[in-house]
Write a structure and sequence with these properties.
The chain is of the alpha+beta class. About 50% of the residues lie in helices and about 15% in strands. It is built from nine helices and nine strands.
Length: about 375
């Protein structure tokens, strides 16, 4: 044997063709998988742009920060919609019919949720007013009062609301900016309106008028600031006097209640007396009306009888009977107030009856008065 190694024998041409064919098949399969993956990715990207707008919402598409569409066309209504995924497009949804509520943050005692539940929030944190903690309002008569108001509103201009306030995350509109703006308007309205009303007006006398004035002021401020919302309702939920003045206000309230009670009692007495007098007057009027009707009827009857008398039908038929009837009527009128009545008809033979009565007579007097 020779010490030199044998040279490698190259593969046969058939083996090289088989390897190339296998590699080509593998590449072809990989390209098919890559195509399917890219197609699926495109479908996923396109599907991610589908979004739904609810019945109480409006939506606006922002493309690179600018709204898509002009005027009312930029507002998308209820239903399915599509937009390019972020960061190309951004969808902002705005609740337009949902009622939002905010509570004023000035003019009330410093309180906690626990104190709100137990009703101890009107007591404050101490026996006196602490300006650093407790809020208050100054009235037109230079008194201090505590008032809390709740404002209900809804968004009526989504475009103004979006462009005046920043959008939130997760494609939902952030209402915090609008809520803070409406709350500031409510606080300003309370301070300004309380300065035009007296303390008794806010507490008892003109409560509804004060509430309407606060709502008007809030609506005016919201419109002036172009917040894109409409104020639906403004309620004065709580009013209270400062704790150091509670006894004095309680005395005033007691005096006012006593006054109202006395006035009510006086009005009730006057009403009873007036009703009794009216009833008496109506009774007298009815009695007089009845007497008048009877008298008129009597005169009318006599007039009818007189008219009949002019023709003398009864007298001609039986003069004696007619005379007796007229005599009986006349005697009834003449002897109305007589206690004893004696009526003697004529005898059967036509001769008059004679009635003699023995009455006490005065004794005759002599010439000398004896």
């Amino acid at each position: 044997m020779s010490d030199h190694p044998h040279p490698e024998i190259p593969p046969a041409p058939e083996t090289q063709d088989a390897n190339s064919q296998a590699l080509a098949e593998a590449l072809r399969s990989s390209f098919i998988i890559v195509k399917f993956a890219m197609a699926a990715l495109v479908v996923v990207i396109l599907a991610s742009g589908i979004f739904t707008v609810g019945p109480q919402e409006k939506a606006i598409i922002l493309r690179f920060g600018k709204p898509v569409g002009d005027g009312q066309q930029m507002l998308l209504g209820m239903g399915l919609h599509w937009a390019f995924p972020r960061p190309i497009n951004e969808v902002i949804k705005i609740p337009i019919t949902e009622i939002q509520k905010v509570t004023s943050s000035v003019g009330w005692y410093a309180t906690t949720p626990e104190m709100e539940l137990t009703g101890a929030d009107q007591q404050g944190f101490g026996p006196s007013l602490n300006p650093a903690l407790d809020g208050y309002l100054i009235t037109a008569d230079r008194n201090i009062i505590h008032v809390r108001a709740t404002v209900s509103y809804h968004i009526d201009d989504p475009r103004t609301a979006i462009f005046n306030f920043a959008a939130g995350t997760n494609h939902n509109f952030d209402l915090a900016g609008i809520s803070n703006a409406v709350q500031n308007a409510a606080n300003n309205a309370l301070v300004a309106t309380a300065a035009r009303f007296k303390v008794d007006d806010i507490l008892t006398d003109r409560v509804s008028e004060f509430q309407d004035a606060v709502k008007y002021h809030v609506s005016e401020l919201v419109s002036r600031e172009h917040l894109g919302v409409t104020v639906d309702q403004c309620l004065i939920t709580k009013t209270a006097v400062p704790r150091p003045c509670k006894e004095v206000f309680a005395q005033v309230t007691t005096a006012r209640n006593t006054r109202e009670k006395r006035l009510s009692e006086a009005a009730g007495g006057a009403s009873r007396i007036t009703n009794a007098a009216a009833a008496t007057a109506y009774a007298m009027i009815d009695t007089a009306e009845t007497a008048r009707n009877n008298f008129v009827q009597s005169v009318r009857s006599e007039a009818d009888a007189f008219k009949q008398l002019q023709q003398l039908p009864q007298y001609k038929s039986n003069p004696r009977l007619y005379a007796e009837l007229e005599l009986a009527k006349t005697m009834a009128i003449v002897l109305t107030n007589v206690q004893d009545k004696i009526f003697l008809p004529q005898r059967a033979d036509g001769q008059p009856r004679e009635l003699r009565l023995q009455l006490s007579r005065e004794l005759p007097q002599g010439r000398n008065g004896n």
